[in-house]
Write a structure and sequence with these properties.
The chain is an alpha/beta fold. The protein has a single domain, classed as TIM Barrel (Alpha-Beta Barrel). It is built from eleven helices and 16 strands. The protein has a five-stranded parallel β-sheet with strand order 9-10-11-12-13. It has a four-stranded antiparallel β-sheet with strand order 3-14-15-16, with no helix packed on it. The chain has a three-stranded parallel β-sheet with strand order 4-5-6. It starts with a strand and ends with a strand.
C-alpha cells in the first residue's frame, strides 16, 4: 500500500505507487503502518499523587510536568490524548502553536463535583469552603465544586466557553478523595440532566467518573454518553450499557500501577484500601463488558511520576482482549468517542496524518505497542515527522 500526506492530511491511499512529483518518499519496508494511538484518560497537570499538593505547587510546576508527560506520550505513539480533568485553553493553545511537543490535545476543562464528592479534596476536619465558580477552596487547578441546578449549569457553560471538548462530572466516590466511599452516588438527577442538556446544546457530551454499578446505570439513564473507569461493573450492567449504546473508558493502569507504587508515593492507607477493592474487580469487569459488546476506549489515568507506565495498559488488557480488540480501542473507537470518526484513528483520505510505523505486526504481538515506543520506527503527528528511524 502507498499513502500520500499533504498539509497534515492523508490525501490518498492506494494499492499502487502514488505519483507525486517532488514528494519525500519513505519506504516502510514491510513494517506496519497504522493510525496513531489515542489515550482518552489523561490528566496532564496531575504532577503528584496528592491532588492538594498539585494545587499548592502552582501553574509553572504543573505545566513543566505536563510538558514532560505529553512528550513521553507522543514518543510512545499516542498522537492524540483527551485530558479528562484539568487541561485548559492555555495548554491546548501552547500545543497548537507548537511551543510544546505533544499529542493532539482534547480537554474537558475542570471536573464538576458536588460538595463532598470525588473532587472535593478537603479532609473531614477542614471547614473552609467558599462557594462559587473557581473559588472552591481546594483543587482549583482541576475541579470545581457545584451544588444545585443553577450552579451546575453555570459551571458547565463556563467550561464550554473556555473551549472544553466535553464536560466531566464525578458521579460516584473515588479512590483518591478523602471523604466519600466508592459506592456513593453523586449529583442528583436534575443536576446531571442539566449538565447533559448544556452539552447537547453545544453538540458535545458528558463523561462521568463511575465505579459502582448504581452510578453507571443512573448516569446513562440521565443522558451521560461516556463512563470513565466502570471498575465495579457486573454482567447485567454491562448489558445495559451496551443496549444504550454508551461508551466506557476503563483505566487499568492507574489501578495496578498504583497498587505497586502508591504507598511509596504517599497514597494514604484509606486510598490503598479502596484501591484493593477496585483491583479485585477490574479484570472481571473487562470480561463482562467484552461479553456484552460494550464499546470501549483506551485510557490510563496515570498520576504523578507514574506517567511513564502508560504503555502498560496493553499489558493489563491483554488478559481479556485480543490484539485486534485493543487496537480498535486505542484507535477507531477512541475516535468515535471523541466524535472524530473519519478524522482520527484511521488511515483513509481526508483523515489527519497521525501515523505510526511499528517494527513488526501488532496484530500478532501487541507487546510491540507496550515497549514505550522502542518498537516504533516512525511517528507522524499532523503530517510532521517527530521520529524517524527509517531513512
Amino acid at each position: 500500500m502507498s499513502v500520500s500526506v499533504e498539509d497534515g492530511v492523508i490525501r490518498e491511499v492506494s494499492d499502487r505507487p502514488i505519483k507525486a512529483d517532488g514528494a519525500r518518499r519513505i519506504d516502510v519496508g514491510g513494517k506496519t503502518l497504522m493510525p496513531g494511538l489515542i489515550d482518552l484518560h489523561v490528566h496532564a497537570y496531575f504532577s503528584d499523587m496528592n491532588a492538594k499538593l498539585v494545587d499548592s505547587r502552582d501553574a509553572p510546576y504543573r505545566t513543566a510536568h505536563a510538558v514532560k508527560k505529553l512528550g513521553h506520550a507522543l514518543d510512545c505513539g499516542f498522537t492524540t490524548v483527551r485530558d479528562i480533568g484539568g487541561g485548559d485553553y492555555s495548554l491546548a493553545s501552547a500545543i497548537e502553536d507548537r511551543l510544546i511537543r505533544a499529542p493532539r490535545f482534547f480537554y474537558a476543562g475542570k471536573v464538576l463535583s458536588m460538595t463532598g464528592g470525588h473532587v472535593d479534596y478537603r479532609t473531614p476536619n477542614e471547614q473552609h469552603h467558599t462557594h462559587g465558580y473557581c473559588s472552591c477552596g481546594s483543587m482549583n487547578w482541576g475541579g470545581v465544586v457545584v451544588d444545585g441546578v443553577d450552579a451546575c449549569i453555570k459551571a458547565a457553560r463556563e467550561e464550554l466557553r473556555r473551549g472544553a471538548h466535553c464536560i466531566k462530572i464525578v458521579a460516584s466516590g473515588g479512590v483518591m478523595s478523602p471523604s466519600d466511599p466508592m459506592w456513593m452516588n453523586q449529583f442528583r438527577e436534575d443536576e446531571t440532566r442539566a449538565i447533559v442538556n448544556e452539552c447537547i446544546e453545544r453538540r458535545t457530551y458528558v463523561s462521568a467518573h463511575c465505579h459502582p454499578v448504581s452510578a453507571i446505570r443512573r448516569s446513562i439513564e440521565f443522558g451521560v454518553r461516556c463512563i470513565e473507569h466502570a471498575t465495579l461493573i457486573d454482567a447485567e450492567t454491562a448489558r445495559f450499557v451496551a443496549e444504550r449504546g454508551a461508551f466506557v473508558v476503563p483505566t487499568m493502569s492507574v489501578i495496578f500501577v498504583s497498587m505497586e507504587v502508591g504507598a511509596a508515593l504517599g497514597m494514604t492507607p484509606d486510598s490503598m484500601a479502596k484501591l484493593e477493592v477496585a483491583a479485585d474487580a477490574a479484570i472481571e469487569g473487562l470480561q463482562h463488558m467484552r461479553d456484552a459488546g460494550v464499546k470501549m476506549g483506551f485510557g490510563t489515568d496515570l498520576l504523578g511520576s507514574t506517567y511513564d507506565r502508560q504503555c502498560r495498559e496493553f499489558e493489563f488488557r491483554r488478559q481479556v482482549f485480543t490484539p485486534l480488540e485493543m487496537l480498535r480501542q486505542a484507535t477507531s473507537t477512541g475516535a468515535e468517542i471523541l466524535m472524530q470518526e473519519g478524522q482520527l484513528g484511521c488511515v483513509r483520505p481526508g483523515a489527519h496524518a497521525d501515523l505510526i510505523v511499528v517494527d513488526g505486526d501488532p496484530l500478532k504481538d501487541i507487546a510491540l505497542l507496550a515497549a514505550d515506543g522502542r518498537k516504533l520506527d516512525l511517528i507522524m503527528r499532523a503530517g510532521e515527522i517527530v521520529k524517524n528511524r527509517l531513512d
